[in-house]
Amino acid sequence: MGGTVKVWVSIVEIKRVRENKKQFLDLLLLADEQESMIDKYLERGELFALYDGGLKSICVVTQESDDVCELKNIATYEKWHGHGYGSELLRHIFSQYKGTYRTMLVGTGDSPRIMRFYRKHGFRSSHRIEGFFTDNYDHPIFEEGVQLVDMVYLSKAL
Fold it and tell me: Which member of 6, 18, 60, 79 has the greatest number of CB atoms within 10 A?
């Protein structure tokens, strides 16, 4: 009857990073492959880092207008994909910005896996910018073996 039950307790901590944001460049580059593109939003954005026994995920959110913010970058080390860290980080920033902004946007490539992730978290199709990836990056960007051309924007009411 009496057995031992082992319970693993995970303590997730999410920190807002105000200085030395470039220290996360390796992780930022997983979601946005060109450093010059990251440089366009990193300093004006708010960076959040999720730790669970070490760094697992980051995201950057920018203010686009008085009532709209944009998720510019969210990345989790590949080793930790499927562990819920990206979802936890999204829930945190939704809570963080609710009441400050009415809408959150995210621009991404038209990849089925990524679109499923955002839709699961309440994002819906908004608009698209044709040729964004081919016009703004110095090399072709591929996701799941398909070259990205257009930027697909999704929005979520906060």
Answer: 60
